From TrEMBL:
The keyword Transmembrane does not apply. InterPro entries: PyrdxlP-dep_transferase_arc, PyrdxlP-dep_Trfase, PyrdxlP-dep_Trfase_major, SelA-like, UPF0425_MJ0158-like_C. It comes from Methanobacterium alkalithermotolerans. This is TIGR03576 family pyridoxal phosphate-dependent enzyme. NCBIfam families: pyridox_MJ0158. The modification N6-(pyridoxal phosphate)lysine is found at K212.
Amino acid sequence: MLIKTNLDEVKKRETALFFINEHIQKNGRRDLYDLTGLSGAYLLKKEDFEVLETYVGPAVFEKMLDEYGKTHLGGEKILGFNRTSAGILATILALVKKDSTVVHYLPELPSHPSIPRSTRLVGGHYLEFDNLKDFILPENTSLVVITGSTMDHKVISEEEFKQIIKKAHSHPGGKIPVLVDDASGARLRTIVFNQPSAMDLGADLVVTSTDKLMDGPRGGLMAGKSSLIDEIKSKAHQFGLEAQAPLVAGMVRALEQFDPENILNSLDKKKKLKKLLNQEFEGFNETPTGVMILPRDIALELEKRNIDTLLSPDDLSFLWAMILLKEYGVITIPAVGMPGASPTLRLDMASFDGKKLELNEIKNILKGSFKKLEIIAPHIDKSKDILFKK
Ligand SMILES: *Cc1c(COP(=O)(O)O)cnc(C)c1O
């Protein structure tokens, strides 16, 4: 395995940023295609720039965030974070005592690393389940986390969602607060799967990412009961986790201009794309708003073509993603993701840049880049050169 540790992932990410910078220096932004589904967009208005300062900014934008945030998520009060991970950390800092247990339910493993990591940080115990029949709530449970939609966009069923909330709220030792990690789920579950919002399903807190399936900056938007939000806000300020004014302004404008139609339009496109890709590859599957191929299926595609490689399936996904970026300017998560992000190669058709590429172009890019992968993957040194440029 070439990418084993967090540090390897950090280095791999630095290489990806190096290639992005190289494309920008050569041709500007226009030849880059960000298909991660994480837009990072800043739709600020001209007048916003005059009020972004430390104390003026929050006075203007936090009030707006409260209004738009409640429309988007429901709940009594809104809080903005630097990232969804920061919102999860602040919640755990506020609600989880040493030696108590955090129980996490998600539609499919693996979990987002921020939940077990934050729990470990406060000295808590961590349990995770992806099926109801094994699910238990130990007596000392201090927080239940439900993931509405995983990093790979696997979505929980409404029935499971309700069952977990019911179990947490009717726990013999007393009502346990429920935080929903709805990073992408706040839009996927509601718009594509027609489920109610997390708050309407009875959650106490929900956090979503403002750059997932909407044209906003990377940030965490939390809604919930006022009393809980106040406690979490206090922790957020103590540890510097809260969103600063420019970020809050970006979140406000993204929420203001959010249009569910964009997500609905991508549904038809991804079906067509999957058909096209199946002419070349067997391993591509549909996601709710795009297509994806798992690392093990990338390895199988190489095997089918009689290509021998010592690289692990995850390494192959990282390498293919890096070739896509270096040679074609296509940005995907395995190349640029933070440590612990999913290694699945995903192309999101709801993304802003997804609209710039014809489906046939995408197919040709994948075909061409896979040919390069076939040539490079048998050689460890060549693979390393691409993954760890510096
Ligand atoms: C993206 C994501 C997160 C973390 O979002 P960041 O902005 O990277 O902190 C957490 N949980 C799930 C399920 C996610 O998809």
